[in-house]
Amino acid sequence: MNNNYNYRxxxxxxxxxxxxxxxxxxxxxPCIAAALxxxxxxxxxxxxxxxxxxxxxxxxxxxxxxxEKNGENSWKIxxxxxxxxxxxxxxxxxxxxxxxxxxPLVARTGKAFLPPxxxxxxxxxxxxxxxxALTELGARVAVNGQxxxxxxxxxxxxxxxxxxxxxxxxxxxxxxxxxxxxxxxxNAASEPHVQDLCKMLNAMGAQITGIGSNIxxxxxxxxxxxxxxxxxxxxxxxxxxxxxxxATRGCISIKGVAPRDMRPIKLAFGKLGITWHIEEDTLTVxxxxxxxxxxxxxxxxxxIDDAPWPGFPPDLTSIMTVVATQVDGTVxxxxxxxxxxxxxxxxxxxxxxxxxxxxxxxxxxxxxxxLHGDHLVSPDVRAGMAMVIAAMxxxxxxxxxxxxxxxxxxxxxxxxxxxxxxxIEKTDCCS
Length: 431
Prior knowledge:
Elements: E1 5-10, E2 16-20, H1 25-34, E3 41-45, H2 51-62, E4 66-71, E5 74-78, H3 89-92, H4 102-109, E6 111-114, H5 128-136, E7 140-143, E8 147-150, E9 158-160, H6 166-176, E10 182-186, H7 192-203, E11 207-209, E12 215-219, E13 227-230, H8 235-247, E14 251-255, H9 263-271, E15 277-279, E16 282-285, E17 303-305, H10 317-324, E18 329-334, H11 345-350, E19 354-359, E20 362-367, E21 375-377, H12 381-393, E22 397-401, H13 404-407, H14 413-419, E23 423-428
Parallel strand pairs: 2-14, 3-13, 9-10, 17-18, 21-22
Antiparallel strand pairs: 1-22, 1-23, 3-5, 4-5, 6-8, 7-8, 10-12, 11-12, 14-16, 15-16, 18-20, 19-20
């Protein structure tokens, strides 16, 4: 895989046009792993064509699973026969989602061997909650250069997660659906992608209730069957394109939106004087926005802070930070969930942004300010997209390297941006 290319972006051109939302990356990854839970074929639709889903498919093939492209954004996965329970290190280190194979592998085969997962460098991302949940269900866990899971039999349990972890919830659910007896998962994550996974598992014959809440109840079944399941839209991508439209003073219509998923995001954008309207499943960001910070009562500086669902998604704090540089007024961005995610703001400061980084979690942004082009390096998926937005809002040319990180989460990004009028080219890093 060649990662040696850059984005060259000429800023100052408002975007305009219509796109269709991609499938939810964070739903696709656990749903791909969940296909291991049955020996029958599973067809997954609306899978985004991004780097991370490609690596997940490679991991399936390394485990002995048949993987077949079944059409545009559709895959047929058939985990028949004996499965190889060990994930290759070179694949595991490419994405954090490799940990999602632990639950289904130990449930299906009684064992799983995983090297430490890779993924975004956004601070410490503990795995203890995964081990807690699987141990409660009867798995034995050993850590010795790699993670080893084994179980003679999984048995339902009353589990209280020590943090509202999305991937730990997903691992626990995937193990519990084939465990013997009743499982209760309290303090469970409830994000739309967790809901997608649970709905897919129910379509395979699982018995999960409480979907969308923080308490999931699961009655284990002896086996699951195949299904066809369509992944929901990616509200992180939708939020990113909303931010892009606002920052460039453009207008955009996004088709295929789930309106309920956008409610916490709309509250946060509203603090920056940015709004939109939705008709059926089409979201339209108008070209005219107030672009004025709406202060709290008494003229106090407002805060945009992230939280587990249904709070504002942490993956969009980077996007909001850039958008805030283009809005009149001052706002506090408080990233409570990952301690290193805000460190990318020094790049924005170099571009002319007025940002005070108070500590690893808080940044005060004062706008509006004129950004100018610069050479940027993408540190992770969302900060990388934030840099794309900054470059498109800036005057002059910017070069963004390490764009592999961006394309881990955004499908056909350069082509879609060009269709909206962006002046962007993908070039070899040596050119």
